[in-house]
Amino acid sequence: MNSIIKAFVRVGSSRGLLSQSPLINSSSNRLMIGSSTLFNNSDKYIQERTYATISKKKLQQIREKREEEARIAKETKEKTFIEVNKVSISTLTFEDALINVREKFNKYHTVKNRLVATLFQKSATAEQLHESLKLYKELNNSNPNYFDSSHILIIYYAFFRTNQMPLFAEILINSDVFQFFPKQNVVIKTLVQLLKSGQDNELAANLLLNYQNKVGSQVNENFMRAFGKEMDKQKAIDQLYTILNIYPRKDFQLGADAIRYLLRQSIVKGNTKETLNLINQFPASTLDKISQACLLAAKIVSDPVAAQSEKIDTNDTRFAETVQNEIMKQYNLAEPDVKESIKEASKVYFNPLPEKLQF
Where on the tree of life does the source sit, at the highest rank (predicted)? Predict the structure, then answer.
């Protein structure tokens, strides 16, 4: 039997009967199907990866192309804007200049600071000035550096020329709204013009207080030196006295120069007592020798008996001469009735009068 089976197997094998076995055939088919599926999935994955890579590259190319087009468009617009704004409006009438600048604004939604400043410069009347200011407000400028110091000085003179200084002061007080941040010279010029008019002392005081708050707790001595000098130059020390009378005294040092100008004017005007009282309400300032001499001269004229407590050192001849010179200079500028009181006070203090005080 075994030999028959072996023979059958040999014969079957030689005839391919094993390959016809259902069991063997089924396993082979599954293997082939599995291999085919694996290869198909692999091809699909590779294709998807390829498409994804191509799509990504294509999108990147599209993105880069758009960015390049946007960059070129922006550069072209900026170049056009620069070229257009290079054109001067200085030779145009105010009306034509206003139209020109407004057209630029409508097209580009901004205007170069130089053109706006020139428009203010061309404003010859209050109406034209208001038109310039109206256009500037339409810009909705939020850049604190839009105007530089030279532009603001040009604009100051436009307001000065058209007698609109109170309006300019209001703009400076609200500088955060208008983006006007002037140097101290423009603030001083504005203060002086307000005070010279004699009608806007409270506005001037508000401007000074506003400036003080912006620069810190104290207005520095350089400011007061320049302020006092300009007030003296404009013959407006009386107005300086007025504004200080309504100004908050705290944390505000007058400085030696302002004190000197105030004291000299007080001797001429005959109101040394009031001026000394005002000065004493402010924090003490460091005084140089000349300012000290002015202070003593004012005290002598105000109350020669009380001033005796501050006798001049006989060895300090230079200081003594400075005090006497200050008294004599202001005496020569005073009205007759004030001259008489200066003379009498000097006699009481010096007794006898020195050679320099020969009234």
Answer: Eukaryota
